[in-house]
Design goal:
single chain; binds 6-O-phosphono-beta-D-fructofuranose; alpha/beta; 3 domains; Rossmann fold
């Protein structure tokens, strides 16, 4: 067991030893009441964690841990604006963006309300055709230019809520590889395309490069310099840099340094969502997030869904020894959820020193998160899940309905989700494998190849449908899980100095690729690759 020292450690250790060799399937046999205390409901989401390798006694130890770490209290202080991001001396008030605790933060709330009103007004003008492109035609497409938190959240939400008749078609460009922008623009009409340049800092190289190229595309298509402000709006905390870049302050939608990039889709960073789906749906997304905030603030550990997600991850990773966490949405709409959650969880909790002391953590922090839409993964990496020897945990996410699709096909999707959940638990025993070998007329020595240990801890997340409200609740649940886990692991969930290092070195190497100078300051491998790049591009 690799956990930070805690009063609850002995109880957790006893549970770990008791459950070390227990089959999850047996936990159902020995406790027929199991399902009643391994299900939680919140804001229309149901978490069924009965297929986790934990029993009632183990859960009590986890609840004691939640009390010891005062998770409830820490969450409340987060939502009230405590400067939880100690290295940047900032609060992390994404919950305020959806109205939570607004009565306690009147000044900041005013700014939020003002920005929402400005966003709503823009959305109305664009949808009503009052605001048009440079030839007088209404906008048909919106391109969000941003990266990381200025891309992944809105991209995932627009993918999830996509309809065949959106108010505006939404597109996303993130990569500085020109291919990304060029492929999107190739199918668009400059006269009817609106751009949103999303960058909290307005210094991000990828975003600024793409924004410049998009502006050039508009100019090359006949837009005048003065038309650009009709076609390009910005979302940023850095209004000066946006103005310097040439975006009129009236076309800038503010963000605040008290919102982390990966928690920002609820702010004006979500403008593309409102333009794509309409204001009502954006509001419903906020409402779903707020409902999950309310649940999380008020529920004790044993009924608190996001806290349970965090406690289970801690149990799996730090007590049972899993090292990755798979998120497996059985919904094409949620196919971008794992990408979004990668930034949310790994940029937040992929840390190595303790929040409280700065000492190096001698236990694992955030597990690697990965996954993709079922059933596609089944025909790819699920082989490793069933027969590989790396321990993992998983969330299988299943919206119970999807009115837009053929019911028979949806039934097959659901059957696959439930089949995989069951297979992950029961596996295939040695006796069953031997019987299978025999039925195939094969030597019994081959039976181990057909055997699957199963017993993989995982949860089911069920809800009625991928609606804006449910999606808001789902995202907020994962946000709060991430926060709770950061408390249990004693790390700062709200900075990202590891990413900043790459940015600094990137600037240095860009100068070398431009001039060929300073090769000596690089290590031999990087210098050789830089020379290869320069040679391949005509020496400049
Ligand atoms: O990847 C690092 C990061 O700072 C993220 O935290 C952020 O979401 C992303 O870059 C984009 O930053 P910005 O919105 O400032 O362009």
């Amino acid at each position: 067991m690799r956990i930070p020292a805690s009063k609850t450690q002995p109880a957790l250790e006893r549970s770990r030893l008791r459950l070390a060799d227990v089959a999850i399937a047996d936990l159902f046999r020995t406790d027929t009441d199991r399902l009643s205390y391994t299900r939680l409901d919140a804001a229309g989401l149901t978490l069924d964690f009965s297929k986790q390798r934990i029993d009632a006694q183990g859960l009590q130890a986890l609840f004691a841990l939640a009390e010891e770490y005062e998770l409830q209290d820490a969450f409340e202080r987060l939502t009230l604006g405590e400067a939880v991001n100690v290295t940047e001396q900032r609060p992390a008030l994404h919950t305020l963006l959806r109205g939570t605790q607004q009565q306690h933060l009147p000044d900041l709330s005013q700014g939020v309300a003002k920005t929402l009103a400005a966003m709503q007004s823009l959305v109305k003008q664009v949808h009503d055709g009052q605001r048009c492109g440079f030839t007088g035609l209404p906008f048909t497409d919106v391109v969000n230019i941003g990266i990381g938190g200025s891309d992944l959240g809105p991209r995932m939400v627009c993918r999830a809520l996509n309809t065949s008749s959106p108010a505006l078609r939404a597109h996303f460009v993130a990569n500085v590889d020109p291919q990304d922008l060029d492929e999107i623009l190739a199918a668009l009409n400059p006269a009817t395309t609106l751009f949103i340049v999303c960058s909290k800092s307005f210094t991000t190289e990828e975003t600024l490069t793409n924004a410049l190229r998009a502006r050039q595309w508009l100019l090359s298509a006949g837009a005048a310099q003065t038309d650009i402000q009709q076609h390009v709006v910005a979302v940023t905390t850095n209004l000066d840099a946006a103005a310097e870049f040439g975006i009129d302050p009236t076309e800038c939608y503010p963000m605040w340094d008290w919102v982390g990039g990966r928690y920002s889709l609820w702010s004006a960073i979500g403008l593309v969502i409102a333009l794509h789906r309409g204001w009502e749906d954006f509001q419903a997304l906020l409402d779903g997030g707020q409902a999950m905030d309310g649940h999380t603030l008020s529920m004790p550990p044993e009924q608190n869904l996001p806290m349970m997600l965090a406690l289970l991850e801690y149990w799996n990773c730090n007590c049972l020894g899993t090292d990755t966490h798979a998120v497996l949405p059985y919904s094409q709409r949620l196919s971008a959820l794992p990408d979004f959650l990668q930034q949310l969880t790994m940029e937040s909790n992929g840390k190595r020193v303790k929040l409280t002391t700065g000492a190096v953590c001698d236990y694992p922090t955030a597990p690697v998160l990965w996954g993709s839409a079922g059933t596609i993964g089944q025909h790819s990496y699920y082989q490793l899940l069933h027969q590989g020897n790396r321990p993992f945990s998983a969330d299988i996410i299943l919206p119970l309905t999807n009115a837009d699709v053929d019911l028979d096909a949806h039934r097959k999707l659901a059957a696959n989700a439930l089949a995989q959940s069951r297979a992950l638990m029961i596996g295939r025993s040695a006796a069953e494998a031997a019987a299978l070998a025999a039925s195939r007329g094969q030597d019994e020595a081959l039976a181990p190849h057909f055997e699957m240990p199963g017993n993989h801890p995982h949860s089911l997340l069920l809800f009625d449908a991928v609606t804006p409200y449910r999606l808001g609740a789902l995202i907020a649940a994962y946000e709060h899980k991430t926060f709770f886990l950061s408390r249990l692991l004693d790390v700062n969930a709200f900075d990202q100095w590891g990413v900043e290092l790459g940015k600094v070195i990137g600037k240095q190497i860009l100068a070398t690729l431009e001039s060929g100078a300073d090769l000596d300051s690089l290590d031999p491998s990087t210098a050789a690759a830089a020379v290869a790049w320069r040679n391949a591009n005509g020496g400049h």
